Amino acid sequence: MSFVDELKSAVTPRTALLVVGVFALQLLFITSYVGALHNPKPTDVPFGVVAPQQQVATVVADQLGKLPGDPFDPRVVATEAEARDQMLNREIDGALIVDPRGRTDTLLVASGGGKVLSATLEAMITTLEAANQRLVRTVDVAPSSSQDFNGLSAFYLVIGWCVGGYICAAILAISAGARPANRERAIIRLGALALYAALGGLGGAIIVGPILGALPGSVAALWGLGTLVVFAVGAATLALQSVFGIVGIGLAILLIVIAGNPSAGGAFPLPMLPPFWRAIGPYLPPGAGTWAARSIAYFKGNDMTASMVVLSVWAMVGAAVTLVVSSVKRERTAERIPPEVPEHP
Prior knowledge:
single chain; alpha/beta
C-alpha cells in the first residue's frame, strides 16, 4: 500500500473536517481571549456622585464627564447612604462623596465585584482629586475575602461548574451515540445530568466555602446556583449534540469556553471589557454564573434575577430541544419501518 493510500486510510474525510474544526476553534480561542483581555480599560462605569448642589454639576459634567475615553457614567446621588445602597444593589460600581467643609473626599468602592476595577477607580479618582488639590480616602463597602485573591474565586468556581457540565454531557453522548436513540434515552440522560449537577454544585460550594474559605456567603445558595449552572451548560451541550451530533461538542466549547469565559467578567469586570464581550457576557452561562456567585458572596444576594433567568432559559431550552429532537428522530425511524402485510389464505 502506497503512502497516499495509507494517508487516505488513516485520515478519512470526516476526520479531516473535524481537524479543520479543531484548528478553527484554536484560532477563535486565541482571538477571543487576547481580544477581550489584552487591553482592559474602564468604559462607562456606573459611578455615583454625592456633592452640594452648587458643586455637583462641575464634578459630574466637567471633571468626570469630560475624561478621555469616557471611563465614567456619572450620576447624581442624594446621600452617602443612598450611594452605599446602590452599590450593594449593584446599580453602581463606585461613588465619590464630596466634603463641602474640607479638602478630603471619600471614594466608595466594592472590591467584591472585582478588585481590578476597584483599584482602577481608586487610581483614577486619586489622580483627578490631586489635580484639583484635594485628597481622597477610600472605603470598601463590599470588601472581597482575604482568601479570595484578586476576587477571582467566584469566576473559577463557575468555570469549574461549566467544565463539569459540558464534559458530563459529552461523556453521556460518546458512551452511546451523540444523538439520543429515543425520547426515553434523552430523559435518562437529562436525569443523569440533573443528579450530576446537584452533586457538582454541592461539591463546589463546599470546597470554596467550608474547606478553603475562599468565598463567604450561603453554602446552600451557592449549591443551588452551582446545580443550575452545571445543568444549564450540560443541557445546552446535550441539545447541540442532539442536533449536530459529535460536532455539537465543539459548538458547546465555542459558546461556553471561547465566547463565555473571557466575557464572564472574571479576570476583568464587565466595565473593563471591550464592547462585544461586554455585550454578550451577561447572556452566557459563565457570565451569568459569575455575577450571581459574587452577588451571593459579597452583595447579600442582590441583583441576581437577570442572571438566574439567563441560566434557567439555557437549562429549559437545552432540555426541551433534546427531548423534541429525540422524539422527532423516533418518529422518523418508525416511518422507515414498513408495515406488516397480512397474509392471505
